[in-house]
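Input sequence (405 aa), recorded before submission:
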Amino acid sequence: MTDVFQRNVRLFILRSIILSVYQGIYDVIFNLYILNMGFHEDFLGTMLAVSLLTSSIASVPAGILCDRFNKRKLMLIFTLLSFLSIVPLFLTSSPLVLLFFSAVGGLCGSVSAVCATPFLTENCEHDTVRVFSMNSAFSWMASIAGNAAGGAMPLLLLRLLPVAGQYRMTMLVALSLLLAGWSVLLFMKDGTGKPSSRKPFKIRFSPNLTKFTLISALMGVGTGAIVPYFNVYFTKVLGAGPSEIGIVFAATNALMVVGFAITPRLTSWLGKVRAASLTQMASIPFLVLMALSTNFMMGSFAYTSRMFLMNLGGPAVTSLQMEMIDPEERGFAIGFMSTVSGVVVAAATYASGLFMAQGNYLLPYVATCIAYILAAGLLYHFFKDSERSPDSAVAEQAQRYKLSA
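Predicted structure, token format:
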């Protein structure tokens, strides 16, 4: 990579690290903060669903903006707006205000999220699996610090504030990380992709985009049904406190760092499609174990194993998507996939919150198992021959990687 590419990639990874520390704190604290203000899982589910729904609705317009305008500048503008919309969530207990700013935050965050992957792709040339794996590894490593901080900070505030106050203060302190992540964008250079604002925009639904969208939608069932509620699962089902949750989340993220370090080797050996499909299928038994467990140690083991295997092939899938989609349409493609997936995630999050409010924690896990099995099976079915086709862009990219490894 050239010096400009290397600088942008390094700064992008630094930004990912900073934002991942914040996300690690958020993952431990936010749901507990809402519940300790006196709300129940049904309102929490509504709040999360509103954010996801507005984010998904905004994803296609965000993708169009990404393809037609400067990606770095878009991220600068909308990351700042996202920060401004998150602050009120920790300053009020009004249900209407919480729902309104959840919606605004989802909308603003959508643009930055859609722009990020194409921007990084533009700056990592051909070695996409290695760069995406490196970014994921450092992000998960940073999440360890965030999880640990999210578990420890309420304990430090234990004698000073009530429980909800401890959580609120923890999140307000963590918001400084969002500003730090935004400031890193100021030091980046614009990517190599040229905005196409003067060209007429044409929407094309290629067969590959349709297939990736279907797979993303199925994955969205699990993302919505169980992932937002992992800390609720540990609290209500396993009887864990925030410090224990922080330790488990941090240990899981530490294991993920090891996983992402071996992802390039795994994909070089098996291929992107086979590696992702097999690891996702291997995670299903541990998801079943989570659903059936009421023991903290057993549930923690199942959670860690499930997270490790389910996310191991993530960089390979992202790389595959970017290689099989036209560079000038990547923003729209990501936006469209995000929209469809986001609607599914929002619906699953809302429905899961209703079930959990009634004490039914099993059904969301059953639905997730079925959806993940279908998603992994379709990924293999649709793309199992893609990396072997001599005319395929994926084969060319895989060959380049093998020669440079």
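Checked by second reader. Residues 388-405 have pLDDT under 50 and may be disordered.
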